[in-house]
Specification:
The complex is a heterodimer of chains A (311) and B (499).
Chain A lengths: L1 H10 L7 H5 L8 H11 L1 H24 L34 H36 L1 H16 L2 H12 L3 H10 L1 H17 L2 H8 L4 H37 L11 H8 L7 H29 L6
Helix pairs in contact in A: 3-13, 4-5, 4-13, 5-6, 5-8, 5-9, 5-11, 5-12, 6-9, 7-8, 9-11, 11-12, 11-13, 12-13
Chain B lengths: L2 H29 L10 H4 L5 H15 L2 E5 H8 L5 H7 L4 H12 L3 E4 L6 E6 L2 H10 L2 E3 L16 E6 L5 E6 L5 E5 L6 E3 L2 E3 L13 H6 L2 E4 L2 E4 L5 E4 L7 E2 L5 H6 L4 E3 L4 E3 L2 H29 L4 H15 L2 H15 L14 H31 L2 H8 L4 H19 L1 H7 L5 H6 L8 H7 L3 H29 L5 H7 L1
Antiparallel strand pairs in B: 1-3, 2-3, 4-9, 5-6, 6-7, 7-8, 10-15, 11-12, 13-14
The chains are: A mainly alpha (311), B alpha+beta (499).
């Protein structure tokens, strides 16, 4: 015994106090967002899809400014020669049943679809995350929020959409409102479940023992953990919102006649599918490319924002 | 199984459904302008030149639909004086003392009193508050038929009682007299062979579309042309008809034709039609689609999980992304286009009708396309998650081979959350699918809610909202119970306490 102790003593030496060393943190330099971008840009496929997405979104925003397309004005409506032209160098995407350039209609529609998709998703996310974070944290709130969820999620969405568009008048604002009025509860429910999963982990227990307030815990301990999960949800929500616009327009409930939309294009052009297939395929292809690129970029961003992939 | 827990949850579900109904009633009966319900009513349009009759008709319909309570001054006066008496004629003039009494009386009771545009007489109405409206609707939901149900002034000698006998088509029956239905219990050759008419659900009369029919009859009765067959009526008269004898109900005024066919006052009936009911069509199609999607989705999901990050997985993921990102409207059209150009299956359901198997193939596959993707995604997710669990490593360390681990451990655990969704997707079949049914022109349930809303068929909207929310709430409960049966580790009560 004694011998061992002596040996141990010989193995160790007193270190002197070094102020500089004690302040220095010996971890490799790590910046969260830099790592996110590095992981994101690593894959060529992702970069390719990202560029495609930017081109599509950019084109949809810029092209309508130059084309000045207005759904209420059909300049060639009385000129039968201009109707149903096949795509050619003069008419890039051909013309439609009232002689409009499909090229103009498609981008004007895509612009509105993108605006609806993004705005509705952002609003839903903000409300949903705020409510969901508190909901997941408070056990008292959970009891009655679950019932609120049961009720809201079971009110027929279509009924709500129709009644609201009746009461408020069809239009972009109404459509976005309709898409937000109940959808936030699903985001909130999803976030609540995620929060509940990490709420009782040891580091949060420790944090609470140290007297951190609930709000700081939500903000600093939990939400950053959820960035990747939220991104996954967002990447699904934007395409699904655009799809829903298509569905509502198919029912005749979407935007008003004054506004172009991909949804109404798809539903108006569908009857011409057999005779003039370009009228169906062009909007659908644009819609599909837009949705798929948004989805893939969102998924890859979700992967990149997960700190576990940064090693 | 904890009975107390299930009971409590059922109770909570009922409260949730009630709240949903209050919201639906508020939306339908207060936010939609009540004049819009007449947009599709021809009878109303014909009254355009008769303003008094128009007002009268409007308020009659509104009262029938439960919007308000309507009182005519004519009815009020008729109670005061005898018919055709000079006092009555005097009182009917606008401005008479009785008229003013009427106004004062009903205004005191909270009614709004207004005058007919032409005759200048008074009428009074009071809006029914939403909560009261819901309560009235609920109290009329279940109707129990007894021998004292019929109240017909013109037929005071109506016998009241029950007896055993046979229906015209030869089945055994419990025959009621004085009850609304003639046959309270009867047997016939149609599924489910024994039928009852004692406890009836009534959701109210459909208006303005499918006028005169109960909402449930619209949804659950066969559609199309009458399926005629030779029949013998109770009087011995023979004829061709699609009559279902079991549905005979009491009729107040019999016409000549009725008297030739029936010996008693039970002369109203439903007929058998050639095509299945909306619910049946949607349900059959949903079941076929469900079999396809579970039959394909789960095996492909398993394959993807086992070949994670290999080619099969990537192809599967591409398909999943495609269905998520592309609107179903577009890929169902794409599928129909491809399928009809390769095979010679019909592009619409109505080409061969419901009796031909070929009609069902394409719509059912289209309906399955998105759910296959969903099942693939989740099966893959659950299996991959289970594969990374410690117990799998332990099983491997104990020397079990891959196949054994996969079949006996991973699969069992991964199937639990998938099982949880089965009752919901089964029940969801009843709701139908709007886009698929519309594209293939299938006469199912999918179009009912959208078209009911567009046609302002309030009774239908309310009934559908009730049915769908009831189904969804109960099927979630059924799913929860199912997983506790499969996996004894899961306890619902403990879960409820924790959350």
């Amino acid at each position: 015994m004694m011998e061992e102790k002596i040996q141990e003593k010989e193995l160790f030496a007193f270190a002197s106090f070094d102020k500089y060393e004690s302040e220095h943190i010996a971890a490799p330099k790590y910046s969260y967002w830099k790592s996110v971008w590095r992981t994101f840009f690593k894959s060529k496929f992702t970069v390719g899809v990202g560029i495609l997405m930017l081109v599509l979104v950019g084109f949809s925003i810029i092209q309508p400014i130059f084309s000045g397309y207005d759904p209420l004005i059909a300049p060639n409506v009385n000129n039968p020669e201009m109707r149903f032209l096949q795509p050619s160098s003069d008419h890039l995407f051909g013309t439609d049943n009232v002689g409009n350039e499909v090229f103009d209609v498609v981008w004007a529609g895509a612009k509105n679809s993108i605006i609806i998709g993004f705005v509705a998703t952002i609003i839903n996310m903000i409300i949903g995350i705020a409510v969901g974070a508190v909901w997941g944290f408070s056990k008292k709130m959970d009891k009655w929020m679950i019932e609120v969820y049961n009720v809201i999620s079971n009110v027929p969405f279509l009924l709500l959409a129709m009644v609201l568009s009746y009461a408020m008048g069809a239009g972009m604002g109404t459509l976005i409102f309709v898409m937000c009025v109940t959808d936030w509860i699903f985001v909130a429910y999803f976030i609540r479940t995620q929060v509940m999963i990490i709420r009782d982990r040891e580091y949060n227990l420790a944090s609470r023992c140290l007297g951190t307030s609930t709000w700081t815990m939500i903000k600093n301990n939990i939400l950053p953990y959820l960035v990747s999960v939220i991104m996954t949800y967002v990447s699904r929500m934007i395409p699904s919102t655009i799809s829903y616009e298509v569905f509502l327009s198919y029912l005749g409930l979407g935007l008003s006649v004054k506004e172009a939309s991909l949804g109404r294009m798809v539903s108006v052009y569908t009857p011409y599918m057999n005779g003039y297939p370009h009228l169906f395929w062009i909007p659908v292809t644009v819609l599909a490319l837009l949705s798929i690129s948004l989805y893939i970029v969102g998924q890859k961003l979700a992967d990149a924002t997960d700190p576990r992939t940064h090693m | 199984m904890n009975k107390g827990y299930i009971l409590k949850r059922l109770l909570r579900s009922v409260i949730s459904v009630l709240l949903i109904m209050v919201i639906v009633f508020t939306l339908v009966y207060t936010l939609v302008p009540r004049t819009s319900i007449f947009a599709k009513d021809d009878a109303f349009r014909k009254l355009a030149t008769k303003p008094d009759d128009k007002v009268e008709y409007q308020y009659y319909i509104w009262e029938k639909l439960g919007y308000l309570d309507f009182v005519r001054s004519a009815d009020y006066l008729q109670e005061l004086y005898e018919e055709n008496s000079p006092e009555l004629k005097e009182a009917q003039k606008p401005g008479s003392k009785e008229m003013e009494d009427f106004k004062a009386k009903y205004e005191a009771e909270g009614y709004t009193v207004e005058t007919y545009p032409k005759s200048g007489r008074y009428y009074a109405y009071k809006d029914t508050p939403v909560i009261k409206h819901v309560a009235i609707w609920l109290s009329g939901l279940i109707e129990i038929d007894t021998p004292w149900a019929v109240d017909d002034e013109e037929n005071p000698d109506l016998e009241r009682g029950l007896s055993f006998g046979k229906t015209e088509s030869g089945g055994l029956a419990l025959i009621g007299s004085g009850s609304k239905h003639k046959y309270l219990l009867y047997t016939d050759s149609n599924f489910p062979w024994i039928h009852q008419n004692i406890i009836n659900l009534t959701f109210g009369e459909s208006y303005p579309t499918y006028q005169g029919l109960d909402v449930l009859d619209v949804l659950f009765s066969s559609q199309g042309k009458e399926a005629k067959r030779p029949v013998t009526y109770s009087t011995g008269k023979e004829g061709e008809s699609g009559i279902i004898f079991g549905t005979l109900t009491y009729k107040n005024k019999l016409d000549r034709m009725d008297k030739q066919k029936f010996q008693d006052n039970y002369a109203t009936y439903r007929t058998d039609k050639e095509n299945p009911s909306m619910v049946a069509i949607s349900f059959i199609m949903g079941i076929i689609a469900m079999i396809i999607s579970y039959g394909l989705g789960i095996p492909i999901g398993l394959l993807m999980a086992r070949r994670k990050d290999k080619l099969a997985d990537k192809i599967g993921m591409a398909y999943i992304i495609f269905t998520i990102a592309v609107p179903s409207l577009a890929y169902i059209f794409l599928f129909r286009y491809l399928a009809t150009s390769i095979t010679n299956l019909p592009s619409v359901f109505t080409t061969y009708g419901a009796s031909d198997i070929r009609s069902w193939v394409l719509p059912a596959i289209s309906l399955a396309l998105p759910s296959i993707a969903g099942l693939m995604l989740w099966t893959r997710r659950y299996v991959v998650d289970q594969t990374n669990q410690d117990y799998v490593k332990f099983a491997k360390a104990k020397g079990l081979n891959q196949k054994e681990i996969f079949r006996r451990h991973i699969l069992k655990n991964a199937s639990i959350p998938i099982m949880h969704g089965i009752p919901a997707s089964l029940a969801g079949c009843i709701g139908g699918a709007f886009i698929t049914e519309n594209i293939y022109a299938v006469g199912g349930m999918g179009k009912m809610l959208p078209s009911a809303i567009q046609e302002y068929n309030n009774t239908m909207i309310v009934a559908l909202a009730f049915l769908f929310s009831m189904i969804s709430v109960l099927s979630v409960l059924a799913g929860d119970i199912l997983i506790t049966k499969i996996d004894p580790r899961i306890s619902l009560t403990e879960k409820a306490g924790r959350s």
